[in-house]
Design goal:
Largest sheet: 2 strands, antiparallel
Strand content: 25-35%
Oligomer: single chain
Radius of gyration: 14 Å
Strand order of the largest sheet: 1-4
Structural class: alpha+beta
Order of helices and strands: EHEEHE
Helix content: 10-25%
Length: about 70
């Protein structure tokens, strides 16, 4: 029987939607998100994601009021 390859997801960010509310940073259980000094076109500091720490739990997606995060399957 052939070994089934596991599907791996990843989180992507749409930084131009970010309004610096911080809900995602406070909600991330593995502290993969942090405030950065990068400013988007609207003048808000965007969130930085540590992809090595991220477990793709999608809590950031759930709490974000501006749809900054998207979970995609590889």
């Amino acid at each position: 029987m052939a070994e089934e390859k596991k599907r791996k997801a990843k989180m992507i960010q749409h930084v131009e939607r970010c309004k610096e509310c911080g809900y995602c940073v406070r909600s991330c259980p593995v502290e993969a998100l942090s405030c950065s000094d990068v400013v988007n076109k609207k003048g808000y500091r965007v969130v930085s994601m540590d992809e090595e720490k991220c477990t793709c739990c999608a809590i950031c997606y759930t709490v974000c009021p501006d749809n900054v995060f998207e979970r995609v399957e590889d």
